[in-house]
Amino acid sequence: MAAAFFPVLVVSILLLLKTSFSSPPSDLQILHAERQIDLTSHIVRVYLTLKVENINDAPASEVLLAFPPAQFNHLALVKAAVAVGKRKKKSYVPLQVNPAEQPDAPNGTKYYAVSLATQLGKGDSTTLEIFYILTHSLEPFPAEISQSDSQLVYYHDSAIILSPYHIKHQATVVKVPSNKVESFTQVEPSHQSGTELRYGPYEDRKPYSYSPIIIHSENNHPFAVVEELEREIEISHWGSVQVTEHYTLAHAGAKHKGIFSRVDYQSRPIAGGSSFKHLLAELPPRVHSVYYRDDIGNISSSRLRTSSKKSELLIEPRYPLFGGWKATFIIGYGVPLQDFLFESAAGIRYLNYSFGCAISDTIVDKLTVKVVLPEGSKDPSAEVPFAVEQRLEKKYSYLDVIGRTVVVLEKRNVVPEHNVPFQVHYKFNPIFMLAEPLMLASAFFLFFITCVAYLHIDLSIRK
Ligand SMILES: *[C@@H]1O[C@H](CO)[C@@H](O)[C@H](O)[C@H]1NC(C)=O
Ligand SMILES: *[C@@H]1O[C@H](CO)[C@@H](O)[C@H](O)[C@H]1NC(C)=O
User: Fold this and answer.
1) Within this chain, do residues 182 and 84 fall inside the same structural domain, yes or no?
2) 20: pLDDT confidence band, cut at 50, 70 and 90?
3) Is the full-model pTM beyond 0.90?
4) Which-ligand-closest: CA of 284?
5) Cβ neighbours for 227, distance < 8 A, ≥ 6 positions apart
């Protein structure tokens, strides 16, 4: 009996060993890591180049990226690509990146896994280009400033790249908006040269090495945050797509202290360092009937410039926006149907439109995109190149009988990089296009009949 069980036991032990060690991080090591952290706007962009080598016998199919929990919550986007070809023929192939779990993550470390296109054999190496974006990661300090003060912010990170792998050689460059750096944590060797802070090179750092740094620097970039944006894109098969966008815009920089003086603001050029007077929205090339209004009414100080490639709308709220101030407004416009609605197969149509926020250089905390399909549309499906929440709603407008299907897409933490095309496919039977005219015609006809009847009755009374 024991002899019969023995092989089973061995196999199961082997299996256990195999599952628990299926992707132990120590399979890999990083030969060379270079990181560039761009702090020049209020959106933090990090570029990371990793040369990864497989030092184990088993082939490796994924590479883990580690993030401290506080940073993980502010990640808006993580992208990875692998460089193929040499020098001039070099091109980048995008790779799949997904959040991943690890059983014994130290200090609550969070992970993303990059899936390699081809497995990495023993002794092989590959170079990955990683790009990620952090929002709400610059903390104004002092938290309150007066109208003419310059804005200073804190940024927290680690001088050593957090990684589950041994890193042989690494260096980091932090780009700041101006050479006015109040202070930055020194981790030898580190120094400032102009608008760049250099950390490293550091040699042979163990997995999960971490060395916290704080950078305190000037940043007068407008911290434009749209707390909530609702975009409604309504398709009418009668020739246009109507877009209506509701904005709640805030200045997320240091809070404004004291009273606002318009005289000071207009007379001294340096006054209101981080405040913003206007914003630029990029709209599609052939827009028409553009409007921009708030609760009070139309705001005429906006300017629209159109060209064959794009249209630019300069939005100027009624007052300049200081830290902590908010403005709510609506932008609306129409675009020609044939620019955005296509037919993919008999009876299947699709809208191809851009997803994100039209205003340049903003973070959107909560974005809702509603695509209102024509009455009678069936089987809607949305195709978005990243994860979004989806649901369907019904909307009734003037002359609707059965209501319109609305495809609702929701996403939090949206950055300009999310401003990419998405598609909504649906089936439509052209017979429905006749519904509204038929209804109108029958309404007129009924009216006509009623009039005739009334006239007849009227006459009969006189007699
Ligand atoms: C606002 O502007 C739109 C478009 O220019 C116009 O149709 C509308 O009448 C204006 N409304 C008011 C209250 O001025
Ligand atoms: C959607 O439009 C963009 C350009 O705005 C184009 O590059 C892309 O190929 C279109 N996608 C589809 C599926 O038609």
Assistant:
1) yes
2) very low
3) no
4) 2
5) 248, 249, 250, 326, 365, 366
